[in-house]
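user: can you give me the structure for this one chain? tokens are fine.
assistant: on it. calling the predictor now.
[tool input]
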Amino acid sequence: MPVPAAAQAGARQLLILNDGFGKLDAWADLAGAAPLPVASLGTDDSTRLLSRISKPGQATLTVVSHPHPRYLYDLLQHHEGAVPRDPSYRPDTGELARIDESFRDTRQSEAREVRADLAVGSDVALAALSTPVPAQGSLTSWVTADPGARWAAQTSVADLGERGAVRSYAPRSVTAETWLSPLHHPRMLNDGAHQAPFRTGDIISTSTMAAWGDSGGHAGVVWADGDTSKISLYQGDELLGEDANERIVTVEGLSPQPRPYRLVVAGERDLPGRPYSTRTRTEWGFTSGTTDCTTLAPLPLIQLDYAAATDLSGRAHRRTELTVTASHLKGATGAAPVRTVAVDVSYDDGTTWHPAPLHGTDGSRRALLDAPSGARYASLRTTARDTAGNTVSQTLIRAFGLQ
């Protein structure tokens, strides 16, 4: 490798000009970090640069570095039957959608984003390369916009990963998407690539219940050395099954008659740089009877989502508005309109609780929180009920910080 020799000769940067196809990723073979910046050019750019510097006299080369991309194109084109003679794909703006992505982890680091497309005729996400992005930053993504183009994205940092729902985008549309932001809480997805807890015949399965979703509508999992969540399924007071993290609890031979069930997800994490949602507990109550054994019917679990204006450190003003949204997953068997939502707030990690008056009767309710001067964190306890009697109670200790 020419890298050590270039560094010893006093070079400030090594630029690799490739005479083959694409860019040369030669520095990937280095045992450790390169002793100087290394970059590569593809064949066409290499040819142009060589023609400039081969002329008599001095040539000045200005190099601008962007450690993370400011924009990204995710493009796909489907061909049926055979690949056309000219497979070139040159979409114009009328065939693309724009996604304004914001990454709002509570500490700066490097995150990785992956956006995969789902195979035609199946729900299999095809392999895709990850893109380095700042965990506190932004990215403008342009994607192929077509009903047949289905995208599934995910973003991860060293100890947390978030998965997004499968989506298609309308041409010329603009979508805002926020990743990694507080308030972290259990959250479910149910689409072609993700399966929510379900019943089929006389079997109930919790599927992969993610305990650390963010405020951007994603389902998340913590990566740690030990268990960070526990999932338990009850029929009345009888424990039917229990496991940890995203492992699946499946119970067979249930009564075909409607019976009351409880699904409990308890989360706890004590990780460096993660001061929020240190403990969570969510209990869903629902009634379930036998279903069509040829389909996976989502359980009528009430999903809670939150929104609060926090800064990049995860802290909100002491007088801030909290939005709570209660909903059911599409196609849930036995679901009904959510009519009752209540929120209690604590400023002493759950020792004492105070009701937070809610406003709004649509899917979202809003509360104005007014924290005392000495408080450092806000904890939340939210309950909701639908008209069929399905319930949820969710407690988030240290849901977010206070300025």
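assistant: here you go. The two ends are 52 Å apart (CA to CA). The chain has three domains: 3-53, 71-179, 197-402.
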